[in-house]
# Entry
Amino acid sequence: MSVPASAQVEAALAVQPQGRLEARGAAVTVPLRLMCQNGATGSLWVQVTQNVRGELAIGEKYTGNVPCTGAFHKVDVTVVSRTKAFRQGVAFTSASLNVYLPPDNSTTVEENREMVLVR
# Structure
C-alpha cells in the first residue's frame, strides 16, 4: 500500500502541569507524554523560562532520539539552567516534537504552557 506524499505523519505532544526542581534549582525535570508514528524518527526540544526576582532563568534541552512506536510514551527531559537557578513556582515551558517518516513526510507538533516547579 502506498501512502500519498501529502499524508500527515501522526504525532502528539503534551507537557505535564508540574516539573521537578533538581540540584537546588540548577535544573528542572520536565515530564512529557508523546507519540509518533511507528517507523518514524523523532527529536524533541524543550525550553524552560522563569522570572526569578526580575531576572530570567532559562534552559533548553535537545533530545535527538525519542521512541516512535505509535503508542504514547512518558519521557522525562532534564533541562539545565544556563543563566540562574530555577525556583519553586510558575515557569513557562515550550516543547517541540519533530517527526520524520521516510522517504519525505515530516511534521512538527508544539506545546507551550505554564508549569509549576516543585521540589
Notes: The mean pLDDT is 94. DSSP finds no helices and eight strands in the chain. The chain has one domain: 11-118.
